[in-house]
Design brief:
Length: 188
């Protein structure tokens, strides 16, 4: 009973007082959390998001595929490294910490990434403590910028609090893509 009460209070506190990561210091979030749709089914999450980047597709592509430097501008990553590379396939290993309120979880993932230059990035998890990871990012020229559509299906290999899991995933996704969008604009 006390354990349930503790986790309930922890979840409630995290929902009421989310920690604003590195983006608070660097500027406002460019991707509002309300633009990220997250659904949970058991231990799995589905994430959908659409955003507009006010940069040409080539600039958006350059940042989205700059995996070697993600650790420099994506706030929850401590390390991002390309293990293998061919013209259209990469193997990328990343480490970081997901934070929300008082909750934090270390994560590690290795993904095989298929590139369709300047139009699509597909990722498939092949290792780490994320049990399942499938994602696709589609880029499309729109006016003077780029429309980005993202879809992911993720099953973490570590415990997520039941009440705040979707909020944590929503927060982390918005924070990561805000950082990428900020980097796209900075590099212009």
């Amino acid at each position: 009973m006390l354990r349930k009460l503790f986790f309930w209070l922890l979840a409630l506190t995290a929902m009421l007082y989310p920690v604003q990561g590195a983006m608070a210091a660097d500027g406002p979030a460019l991707v509002p959390e309300s633009d990220v749709r997250v659904t949970r089914s058991g231990a799995s999450f589905t994430v959908d998001m659409a955003m507009y980047a006010p940069v040409p597709p080539a600039q958006a592509w350059a940042v989205l595929t700059d995996f070697e430097h993600y650790g420099n501008f994506v706030p929850n990553l401590s390390n991002s490294q390309v293990l293998e590379r061919s013209d259209t396939v990469l193997k990328v290993h990343q480490k970081g910490v997901a934070r929300f309120g008082f909750f934090s979880a270390n994560f590690e993932s290795t993904r095989e990434i298929q590139l369709i230059p300047q139009s699509e990035i597909r990722a498939h998890g092949v290792g780490g403590n994320v049990e399942r990871m499938e994602s696709v990012m589609q880029l499309q020229a729109e006016g003077a910028g780029t429309r980005l559509n993202y879809h992911a299906e993720v099953r973490p290999g570590f415990w997520f609090p039941p009440l705040i899991g979707p909020a944590l995933v929503r927060h982390q996704t918005a924070e990561q893509f805000s950082a990428m969008l900020q980097e796209m604009i900075r590099r212009q």
